[in-house]
């Protein structure tokens, strides 16, 4: 079958490459407008990992005319981090965008390889802290990540199973800025991973298919499998679950009067005396967060 709009060779679900690209970009534009995600005046930092999702974020935002720069963290994972950085540099060159690279080992003296357990948890803490601190210290207004619909519903299920009310209250597509935390946005909030992959292939976006060796231990991957199995019986199960959350999210509301403070070591916003990053990496004194461009 050909494209249902023009008759050209079908690329995906009844659309040729050109019309699929237009379809995907319209999905993104609708999400940005629906949730008031971004403003033309904002300086945007896009966190890129080397994978298809974050690279597609940078690609589509550049095409839509937003003011963006790229940020990457070298975590020092053998047979993964070097490959990821190579693809990030390709993306930066093609899009002609500034690329800021931070090396974890330069800051902590260690890499994720040196962590004995809970690699994914510590990796998440590390990424959130470093991209937020870099953005805050360098005058950015918002951070955009590549989290997609599959990520979001799997995180929700995991937090429900653990009855983690605090994190269940934070599954919005836009997390507003407060204290030294920048605004955070997920432009693929309502878009499935499969659609993002097809967009990346249609646009010839450079990305790595290499997987972090610690990823296999992530429980959220199993939750993704459950949803993909359910999708065989109910096509829109992921989006329905997400919209159900948005409709009833007030049941997970937490105390808005919580008082944040500054970390006694680094000075960034923290829930306790010492922030999670300084605690898990045993940081003893503040440091300059410098990037390689």
From TrEMBL:
Tell me which SUPFAM superfamilies the record gives.
Adenine nucleotide alpha hydrolases-like
Report the GO terms under cellular component: cytosolic tRNA wobble base thiouridylase complex
Q: Indicate which residues the UniProt annotation says bind Zn(2+) 1.
A: 3, 6, 16, 19
Binding sites annotated in the UniProt record for Zn(2+) 2: 263, 266, 275, 278
**In terms of domain of life, where is this protein from?**
Archaea
Write the record's keywords in alphabetical order, separated by commas.
Answer: Metal-binding, Transferase, Zinc
Q: Does the record bear Zinc in its keywords?
A: yes
Q: Name one GO molecular function term.
A: transferase activity
- Per the database record, which ranges form the Rhodanese domain? 39-89
Q: Which GO terms describe its biological process?
A: tRNA wobble position uridine thiolation
Query: PANTHER family recorded for this chain?
Result: ATPASES OF THE PP SUPERFAMILY-RELATED, TRNA-5-METHYLURIDINE(54) 2-SULFURTRANSFERASE
What name appears for this protein in its UniProt entry?
PP-loop domain-containing protein
- Supply the source organism's classification: Archaea, Methanobacteriati, Methanobacteriota, Methanomada group, Methanococci
